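Input record (one chain):
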Amino acid sequence: MATRGRPRTFDPDVALRQALDVFWERGYEGTSLNDLAQAMGIKSASIYACFGSKESLFRQVMALYGATAGEPPRRVLREGPTAREAIHAMLQATADQITHPEHPHYCMLILAAPTGATENHAVREFLAAGRQGQYAEIRDRLSRGVTDGDLLAPPVGLDAMARYYATVVQGLSIQARDGATRAELETVITCAMAAWQTLAS
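The corresponding structure, as predicted from the sequence alone:
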């Protein structure tokens, strides 16, 4: 008769949240398996058994991040009544999220692994794909504005307009990481929205 494996003595959902906190604080390359094991209260072997490799765990962490801290900007982008209001709300929600006092001041999608060792190329490509998805969501919302009639097809093109606001989102994260306050980020948002009329007309 086969011997059953030992039952888990930890909650994978809780452990994943703890891993998120570590990766968010230290970034991908700054986080070791020992750091994760200590924060999650389990042995490294249990990390491999439950989550796979460090990279696999990070990918699961990013899915959790996207569904929690990363969701408010995406939600208001989808739900804004007009394209302009949706973009404005997205920028404000981003600024709120990256200056929240209870977690590190940056967006993980943008700064968790901006550069690094060759062996971590797949992680950087994974995050780059996520940022491309962010750009695509912005472009889709602008396109919906054209369809709904609240945004004229801009001379610069929807691609350029979407890339501009995606760049603003990424810049806000860098500014917050470097110490910019919520009020200071609001001045950036004001300037970015002042450009709307030029971009859209």
